[in-house]
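DM from R.C. (forwarded with permission)

"hey, sorry to bug you on a friday — could you get me a structure for this? deadline for the figure draft is monday and I only need the backbone to look sensible"
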Amino acid sequence: MSYAYQTEVFPTAIRARASGLVYSMSRVGATFSGFIVAYMLREAGVNGVFGLITAAMVMVLVVLGPNVRGKPLGAWAGRTSVFSAWPNFG
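My reply, with the result:
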């Protein structure tokens, strides 16, 4: 799902660079996620772990996900500046 979303929203120059960064950061996140899940499992059980994962996914989507509703697939093509391709959250 995330791969299809990325190809619709970001130009190739950003996707290539960001994919490497996201992969590296996922390794850092994986280092700590085991400890966080173990703590939630001990404190809140299986439902708490599922709730934590669901809340994290929704938060990332709401906070970081640009609005693509009603925009054509090539709407961001042709931008020359890397920074002009980031969504306007204002």
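R.C.: lifesaver. The two ends are 26 Å apart (CA to CA).
me: no worries. Residues 2-66 form one domain.
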